[in-house]
Design brief:
The chain is mainly α. The protein has 2 domains: 47 residues, Orthogonal Bundle (Arc Repressor Mutant, subunit A), CATH 1.10.10; 129 residues. The chain is 70% helix and 0% strand. It is built from 10 helices and no strands. Helix 1 crosses helix 2 and helix 5 packs parallel to helix 9. The longest helix is centred in the middle third of the chain and has 20 residues. The protein is globular, with a radius of gyration of 20 Å. This is TetR/AcrR family transcriptional regulator.
């Protein structure tokens, strides 16, 4: 009888790969099922045991913050682009993330007190403030628009996403809501 190859336990050598798999799985599962999705579903999606998940991420918040950090790295790269269009690209990507991965807004809302010790509340406004003046100087957005206004619109978009009945109507509802604001910030 042929011997079936056994999958070997790579131990610590597999840690970086497991961490990446968990973060990727968490992004997908949170996007599909929300912030309160079972962590066991994330471990299963990543192809690892729950013990591996908890070794890397002792709490749900730790895991969500790791995914959130990837989002910020992406947004920071966009904001670092020196041209006037960086604000538009930042805004478009922020809208996409709000629509596609609203679980992270849920996470932020559910854990506000725990996040007080982090810099999350300051990072997004800083990115907007870094790109908005260039867009204003180029005439791409009104001079009267502030970073606080942009964040308010983003929160409004999240409200549309959170209260939509089905996934099919979300994008249309967001487009209509932004249109009602007079096209100041279109996605």
């Amino acid at each position: 009888m042929p011997k079936v190859p056994r999958r070997s336990n790579r131990g610590p050598a597999a840690a970086p790969e497991n961490r990446r798999a968990l973060i990727d799985a968490a992004r997908r599962v949170f996007a599909q099922r929300g912030y309160l999705a079972p962590l066991s579903a994330i471990a299963q999606e990543a192809g690892v045991g729950q013990g591996v998940l908890y070794r890397h991420f002792p709490t749900r918040l730790d895991l969500a913050l790791a995914v959130f950090e990837q989002h910020f790295a992406e947004l920071e790269a966009i904001a670092a682009e020196p041209d006037a269009g960086a604000f538009g690209r930042l805004w478009s990507r922020l809208l996409e993330l709000t629509v596609e991965e609203s679980a992270f807004v849920e996470m932020f809302l559910a854990t506000r007190r725990d996040l007080a010790q982090t810099d999350l509340a300051d990072r997004l406004p800083a990115l907007i403030q870094a790109t908005l003046p260039r867009a204003q100087a180029a005439g791409l957005v009104p001079d009267s628009l502030t970073a606080s206004d942009v964040l308010l619109v983003q929160r409004m978009v999240y409200g549309v996403v959170a209260t939509s009945i089905s996934d099919d109507e979300v994008r249309d509802a967001v487009t209509r809501a932004l249109g009602l604001l007079g096209g100041v910030l279109e996605g």
